[in-house]
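Reply to dn_fold:

You asked what the input looked like. This is it:
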Amino acid sequence: MKEAYWGYWLVLLGIFVVVVMLLSNDATTTNSQDYYQLKEVANSALYDSIDYSYYSQTRQIRILKEVFVENFLRRFSETVQITDTYDIQFLDLYESPPKVSIKISTSTAGFIVGRDTADTVGTEDGVTKLDVVNSIDLIVEFNANERITNNCNPFCEDIYREETSTECTYYTDI
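and this is what came back:
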């Protein structure tokens, strides 16, 4: 009978290892996807919110806070699934010099592990979930000897070397 107990314990250990592997795999995948999603969306929203009329008058780069937040939330909501729940915090938003700090939080998919109770840490209604938090700090880098304009902006009248982007054609001083 002792050998039968060893068999039960090995099966139980195997089930426990599989559950831990599934939970850690989901947390790692969620973390990676959220980080790259945050990085791409924030970078795109940052460059979309540059105030080109201010730049054409003062030759200093500045972003518009409201435009950045609007672009970020729109782009981020387009890339997430409808069932995901995120907590987005804008920690720092500086217009000039352009700098943003963003933190997003979410939780992994739930797994029922044994007979968890709702008062156990990391569980909700008997479902185990892990919290995933990502943050990023971005600044706009700019070479002071370069002049950039945007031909989508009617205030730009100078002629520069053409560099194309996915949305507009940008010009830099030759």
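The longest strand covers residues 99-107.
Hope that clears it up.
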